[in-house]
Amino acid sequence: MTHPAQPKASHFINGEYVEDTAGTPIPVIYAATGEQIATVYAATPAIVDQALSTAKEAQKAWAKMTGTERGRILRRAADIMRERNHELSVLETYDTGKPLQETLVADATSGADALEYFGGLAGSLTGEHIPMGEDWVYTVREALGLCVGIGAWNYPTQIACWKGAPALACGNSMVFKPSETTPLCALKVAEILHEAGAPAGIYNVIQGMGEVGGALVTDPRVDKVSLTGSVPTGKKVYAAAAEGMKHVTMELGGKSPLIIFDDADIDNAVGGAINGNFYSSGQVCSNGTRVFVQKGIKEKFLARLAERTGNAILGDPMDEATSFGPMVTENQMNIVLGYIEKGKEEGARLICGGARADMPGYYIQPTVFADVTDDMTIAREEIFGPVMSVLDFDTEEEVIARANDTEFGLSAGVFTNDFSRAHRVIGQLEAGSCFINSYNDAPVEAPFGGVKASGVGRENSKEAIKHFSQVKSVYVRMGDVEAAF
Ligand code: NAD
Questions:
Q1: How do residues 259-304 score in pLDDT, each as one tens digit?
Q2: Does the pLDDT of residue 187 top 90, yes or no?
Q3: Over the chain, what is the mean pLDDT?
Q4: Which residue has the CA at smallest separation from atom 8 of ligand 1?
Q5: CB-CB contact of 207 with 41 (8 Å)
Q6: Share of the chain above pLDDT 70, in %
Q7: Closest residue (by CA) to atom 10 of ligand 1?
Q8: Known catalytic residues?
Q9: Ligand 1 atom 26 nearest Cα
């Protein structure tokens, strides 16, 4: 019998499901059991061409609609997503292995927020009037054209919406390629947008590995590329996009600092560290994986952290009591287990976890290392799994320098009850998305993105509009034209 997660076909192009089994088969594995639940096929060159030519053509009429009309469609799609939240959350759980306890509140709901927010903004994307004496200049905020979105595997619904909603609000069309690890959810986003009234060809989804992503990025019909992925992929995609002078948004990896001062509320700080390391089993780009704890509260912090981490419920992700799911794939599990071994070898002190959980599926115990030093591999490289490194520090000046000593710059957090210190420290941290006495909140109203190697551009908020549109300026002369001859 076909599994309920099996999509009707691999791709969604021009308002309908399209199949081409000539492409490389991509198995979809449920991370909680290791069983294959679906198969899709990578896009062949013919599918890539069909998606791009359809999106290019459809964009012209879409951009001519009023912003309010476009926005109404996006907001209708948001409503449908909310109505189907349970079904979409189950699919997200099949796609990623994340527990339903999380997916019910963080995925389709976050996607719906983006569709609603950008749907609301679509009617107010206007230009300026600039008086020049009796002459004047007006500006027009125009769509870029055809945008490509390429997703990572940790938030397949959210990423498809965070890219699609602002792109469509501005009058662009999109071809979205999900990660080959989680190909299912973006198809539902396309189906819902179509059901909500998006004209055929405005939002298309095609499957494939890096090769298909590469074909999209280098195609001359494409005007912009928005990637969520790792730094090495980001460098390749950025370079390929530059070759065609395309616009880019790069949402890449991180190794973010979370700084806890002696005067912080310990339970809130422990809660922040848990949210910043163990949500989605640690598979979150903005995680605060270098937890700097001031020496005065170190042992108290570690004791409370170990106690609360012990309350994590590992189990069937479809059981709403489960609070901690598996790694997305066997491969990712092995990468993370390799980092745990490195941590032990390099002399970090294991506080809890430190091994694969004794159950089917790709589960790793939530793991905390203390006495981590700046040069250890687990303190330098992005692990993308449930491995928290706790480092000690003495002074504010010292911790700021150490926090910034990384190629990454996605997020940073500070826990303290001294608000002048909180703002002073945040002001000096090299990161795009920061938190004071909190960690990992990502509301659609706030800009999200990184500095340094963690990325270029911003998603969410009004900032995203700037990255999915361009400004035309028009000088209007009221009098005669003077010329030298
Ligand atoms: P990845 O870099 O391996 O792949 C990302 C996407 O790029 C996939 O869809 C992949 O098929 C595609 N791709 C690979 N090579 C390509 C190429 N040469 N040209 C075009 N496309 C190509 O990343 P991943 O393993 O799927 O995801 C994990 C990474 O994503 C982590 O580093 C994580 O920090 C990052 N991430 C960042 C954010 C953010 O918003 N900043 C969010 C989630 C994940």
A1: 999 999 999 999 999 999 999 999 999 999 999 999 999 999 999 9
A2: yes
A3: 98
A4: 179
A5: yes
A6: 100
A7: 210
A8: 163, 251, 285, 459
A9: 152
Distance 251 CA to ligand 1 centre (A): 9
Encode 227-258: b = buried (16+ Cβ within 10 Å), e = exposed. bbbebebbeebbebbeeeebbbbbbbbbbbbb
Buried b (16+ CB within 10 A) or exposed e, 283-298: bbbbbbbbbbbbeebb
Atom number, ligand 1, closest to the C-alpha of residue 217: 20
pLDDT higher than 90, residue 1 = no
Say what the pLDDT of residue 148 is. 98
